[in-house]
Structure formats: C-alpha cells, structure tokens
C-alpha cells in the first residue's frame, strides 16, 4: 500500500466512525471548498492522534519518511489527508530534522491555499527561520514581493508565529518591510495575516509597533486592524479608533 493510500484509508475509516454533521460548512470554514479539496470533517485532535498512532512508512529512514510525506502532501485531494504531513513535522520532527527538511517544506508552499494548511506551514517555517535565518529570510522576503497572495501571507505570518513560542526574533527593522508591503494587497487572508503579524510584532517590539500603528492605523483594512490591536490597551484602541473615524469622515467631505 502506498503512503497516500495508507493515510487516506485510515482517515476515511475514522470519518465513518465519527461522522461530521455538516461537511459543507466545515469545508467553507477551512476554505477547502474554494480550492476543490474534499473534507472528511475530522476534528484536529483526531488528526493529531492519527499521526501519534503512526503509519507503516514512518518506520523508515528520515529520507524515506520525507519522500512518503511528500507523496501524501502533493497527491491528495483531501483537506485532512494533506494535513497529516504537517502534523507529523510539527509533532515528531527534531529541530535538526526540521532544518534538514527546509527545501522540501519550502517547496510545499504552492499547495497551501487554505488558512489551516498555510498556518501550519508558517509554524514550521518560523521554527526553521530561528535556526537558519540567513537561508530562510531571503525566501520569505522574495515571497513578500511576489504576485501570489498565499505566498505573501506565508511570508509574514512565518516571521513570528506566536511570539511566546519563539526563542529569538529578527530585528524590528528587518521584519516590518515585509508586513508593510501587504497593507494594500486586496486579499482577505493576506489582510488577516497583516493583522496577525502586527499583533505578534507588538508582543516582541511593543513601542516600535505602537509608533507604527499611530502613523498607519488609518491605512489598515478592517480585518487587519481588528487583529493588530487585539492585545492593545483600551486607551490605545480608543485613540486609534478615533483616528480611523476622523479619517473616514474626512473622506466623505
């Protein structure tokens, strides 16, 4: 049995044992429907448990495991099946193994076109960025200037994927330009990524980020703004809210 068939058979059996009430709603929530992926409706704990239980191909060498997971990621038309390689590297991979798999994981980026897959990849990219910024950052920088919106999202969410999980973060002045490039990109998930990234940037560099928000809050889309100020104090949020309101009123005149 091929790795793809083994993973698909396992997850489809789990889905029959634990049927989801509304697969169409689940597919819309994940964004799987927009890219033509079918959805089994498996909850995340079940998906993680499947990786912990293991597959026969996980008994091979690291190189053999990587080839098998690449087959699963590239060959599936199922949202949950595609997520299994991502859960594997998040749960099982050692730091050195993760670093060695950067070329493989980097090349998975074109298929990450729904937010759960994209964000799982971002978590892996952020860990590898800490280990080898000289190799990883130029790739993110290039993606941030490209024409593909999902790569633009990957480029910024990967910079600080949950600040409290990072042992080191690149300088503010190095990170900010990648985020600023996305402020005017007309794509809802890029905008959500802008807000997420500004929020996490503020957790590491609170004063520098606040100064930027004071100057640029009126430029942010509604979805970017709401995420960016989520952790700010009420007084700070009120100040920015007033500035955004004044800017809207000025445009109407």
Summarize the structure.
With 253 residues, this protein is mostly helical. Helix content is 68%, strand content 0%.
Which stretches are poorly predicted, pLDDT < 50 over at least 5 residues? none
Q: Which whole number gives the mean pLDDT?
A: 94
The DSSP helix count reads 15
Q: Provide the β-strand percentage band.
A: under 5%
Distance between the termini: 68 Å
Structural class: mainly alpha
Helix content: 55-70%
Name its key features:
253 residues; mainly alpha; globular
How are the secondary structure elements laid out?
Elements: H1 3-17, H2 23-30, H3 44-53, H4 62-75, H5 79-91, H6 95-100, H7 102-106, H8 115-131, H9 133-144, H10 149-157, H11 172-180, H12 188-204, H13 206-216, H14 222-228, H15 234-252
Helix pairs in contact: 1-4, 3-5, 4-5, 5-8, 8-9, 8-10, 9-10, 10-12, 11-12, 12-13, 12-14
């Amino acid at each position: 049995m091929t790795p793809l068939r083994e993973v698909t058979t396992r997850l489809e059996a789990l889905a029959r044992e634990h049927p989801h009430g509304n697969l169409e709603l689940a597919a819309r929530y994940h964004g799987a429907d927009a890219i033509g992926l079918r959805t089994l409706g498996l909850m995340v704990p079940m998906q993680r448990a499947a990786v912990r239980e293991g597959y026969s191909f996980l008994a091979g060498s690291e190189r053999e495991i990587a080839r098998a997971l690449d087959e699963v990621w590239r060959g599936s038309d199922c949202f949950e099946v595609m997520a299994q390689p991502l859960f594997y590297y998040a749960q099982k991979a050692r730091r050195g193994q993760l670093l060695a798999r950067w070329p493989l994981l980097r090349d998975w980026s074109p298929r990450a076109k729904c937010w759960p897959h994209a964000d799982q990849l971002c978590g892996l990219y952020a860990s590898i960025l800490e280990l080898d910024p000289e190799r990883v950052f130029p790739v993110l920088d290039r993606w941030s200037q490209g024409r593909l919106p999902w790569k633009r999202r990957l480029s910024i969410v990967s910079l600080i994927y949950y600040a409290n999980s990072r042992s080191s973060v690149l300088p503010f002045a190095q990170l900010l330009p990648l985020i600023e490039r996305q402020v005017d990109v007309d794509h809802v998930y890029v905008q959500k990524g802008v807000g997420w990234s500004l929020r996490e940037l503020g957790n590491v560099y609170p004063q520098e980020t606040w100064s930027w928000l004071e100057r640029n809050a009126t430029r942010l889309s509604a979805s970017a703004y709401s995420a960016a100020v989520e952790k700010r104090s009420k007084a700070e949020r009120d100040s920015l809210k007033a500035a955004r309101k004044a800017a809207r009123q000025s445009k109407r005149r």
